[in-house]
Amino acid sequence: MSTSQDLPPKGGYDAIQWRRNLPSRGFRPSIYLGIMGAVSLFGFWRLSIAMRVAREEKREKTWARIHLVPLLQAEADRDTVRRHYATIEREKAIMKDHPDWADGKPVYHDGRLHAPTFVILEDTKSAR
């Protein structure tokens, strides 16, 4: 019986694959970095536009309030005068039995103008 030795095939064996054979996933990192930079740049551009609009709206709101101050002050002055006359009328009604009482005379005698203070209390009789 003849023995034959196991030999490699003619032309040799195929090369042994020793590296990982993974498919490439996605782009190169530099492309991702460029995309991220472009998105950030776009976001900062939109943020600057939004901040500019907000600043303009705040300026417009401030000027609107500044221009409304005289009207609001006139309303407050009219309300103060109305309350002052109502207080004098109430004072006349309360002090009608005292002939030496001067209606509307200031309580303080220091010569300075004191802004009237009004406190609105609820009616205690109807609250019971």
UniProtKB/TrEMBL annotation:
Location of the protein in the cell: Mitochondrion inner membrane
Calcium recorded as keyword: no
Primary location: mitochondrion
Keywords assigned: Electron transport, Membrane, Mitochondrion, Mitochondrion inner membrane, Respiratory chain, Transmembrane, Transmembrane helix, Transport
Protein's UniProt keywords contain Ribosomal protein: no
Transmembrane stretches, start-end: 31-49
A Pfam match: GRIM-19
Sequence similarity: Belongs to the complex I NDUFA13 subunit family.
Protein name per UniProt: NADH dehydrogenase [ubiquinone] 1 alpha subcomplex subunit 13
